[in-house]
Write a structure and sequence with these properties.
By secondary structure, the chain is α/β, with parallel strands linked by helices. It folds into 2 domains: 216 residues, FAD/NAD(P)-binding domain (3-Layer(bba) Sandwich), CATH 3.50.50.60; 99 residues, D-Amino Acid Oxidase, Chain A, domain 2 (2-Layer Sandwich). It contains 14 helices and 17 strands.
Length: 420
């Protein structure tokens, strides 16, 4: 049996986990990340980074590494498959520049690698499976104790669950399990060796019970998605990628424009997935136990949401900065990472985040329900209203700034403060 002691342990090396570790690294705290997979996971081929996410990445000091690779998008075209009518929707405010110029669509793997490259060697412990979590009193405070399947026991002042929709940390906190929204999503990345020739714009297609779209990531790669109300049998969702591709083309998008179907035909089958869309009920976030003692959650472990607003990953990046800000302020206030003060400071993080992510999760679900809500006349009117009036209102959500990380004095300066 191996015993270890850490300042902070993060469960999960996804977007939330890596970003949180980077935030703590900027504060001078080395966090250990426990990841059950043998390497970085890049489920889903691309991710949308709206200005709020880019501002969070800027606070982490890495935004420039992505903005130099991916240009902003300023326009989305939404086509009604039944009528052929197309609406143009601006994605950027008038005169917006820099990080606020518009969303950028980036390779998920690239984002993970950019964050991971900021961490020291050994910060991520892969193939780490957690058997149990408990708390233990130590020197008048409570610490987290993590038991791994290989017999290792890790004691930590702070434990942060960033382990996704089916989080073991969220389960330990007593949060309700995410529920199926009744919809599913196909995600793919298409490759055109000779170039796709598409314009720098987002294309979406709406039909009864379906919402689809594509966006060029670079000159040769195109990210695409299909959200469905009617989900196939589970065996189809878990089938060989060729079966999934054929199912989509023959039974879901046969009436869609050729430009969309051609994108699916060029799909890199190794990147093709079909997944159910899960979310946590809003009241489960607002009234749930998002923190117990020195243990809390971030990212999908806190607020799993449907992708209809494209803000799951963006919110996770915000979580990392806000959590880092509260921990950094705690260090400054207490002259170090003091276990007995951690619970109160983590509670500040929870109180700041829970209402925003609740509204994001609720808005995402309602957005999907409106856009894929069937053929009733009143639902069609709702969709028209949504595209014409509500999408521009979402800009206040997109332009949100989660703030900066504090400047934490060095250890010697903190020690001098204690002596004084």
């Amino acid at each position: 049996m191996k015993m270890m002691e850490e300042e902070v342990v993060i469960v999960g090396a996804g977007i939330a986990g890596l970003a949180t570790a980077v935030a703590l690294q900027r504060l001078g705290i080395r966090a250990l990340i426990l990841e059950k997979s043998p390497g970085l996971r890049a489920t889903g081929s691309a991710i949308t980074l709206f200005p709020n996410a880019l501002l969070a990445l800027d606070a982490l000091g890495v935004a420039h590494k992505l903005t130099s690779l991916y240009a902003p998008f300023k326009m989305v075209l939404v086509t009604n498959v039944e009528t052929g009518a197309t609406q143009e929707i601006s994605l950027a405010g008038n005169g917006a520049t820099g990080l606020r110029a518009g969303p950028r669509y980036v390779h998920r793997k690239t984002l993970l690698e950019v964050l991971a490259d900021e961490l020291p060697s050994g910060a991520i412990r892969f193939s780490s499976h957690i058997d149990a979590i408990e708390t233990q009193s130590q020197e008048g405070s409570t610490i987290a104790v993590i038991h791994l399947s290989d017999g290792t026991i890790i004691k930590s002042k702070i434990l942060i669950g960033c382990d996704g929709v089916h989080s073991i940390v969220a389960r330990w906190l007593g949060l309700g399990e995410p529920v199926n929204s009744g919809r599913s999503c196909v995600l793919g990345l298409s490759v055109f060796p000779d170039g796709h020739g598409l314009k720098q714009e987002v294309r979406q297609f709406a039909d009864v019970g379906l919402r689809a779209g594509f966006v060029p990531i670079n000159d040769k790669e195109v990210y695409w998605f299909l959200n469905c109300i009617s989900s196939p049998k589970g065996k189809i969702m878990r089938a060989d990628p060729e079966v999934i591709q054929r199912e989509v083309l023959e039974n879901y998008v046969k009436d869609f424009p050729e430009i969309y179907k051609d994108t699916i035909r060029h799909c890199d089958l190794s990147k093709l997935i079909w997944v159910p869309l899960m979310f946590r009920y809003p009241w489960g976030i607002v009234f749930g136990n998002l923190r117990k003692g020195n243990i809390t959650v971030a990212g999908d472990a806190m607020h799993p949401m449907t992708p209809d607003l494209g803000h799951g990953g963006c919110a996770a990046l915000e979580d990392a900065v806000v959590l880092g800000r509260h921990i950094g302020n705690s260090i400054i206030k207490n002259g170090g990472l003091v276990p007995r003060a951690i619970a109160q400071d983590l509670d500040g993080y929870v109180q700041e985040r829970k209402w925003r992510v609740t509204w994001l999760a609720t808005g995402s679900y309602l957005s999907g329900w409106i856009q894929q809500g069937g053929s009733n006349w009143w639902k069609k009117i709702l969709r028209d209203v949504f595209y014409k009036f509500l999408i521009p209102k979402i800009r206040s959500v997109i332009d949100y700034d989660c703030g900066k990380l504090p400047i934490v004095p060095s250890s010697s300066q903190l020690d001098s403060k204690k002596i004084e």
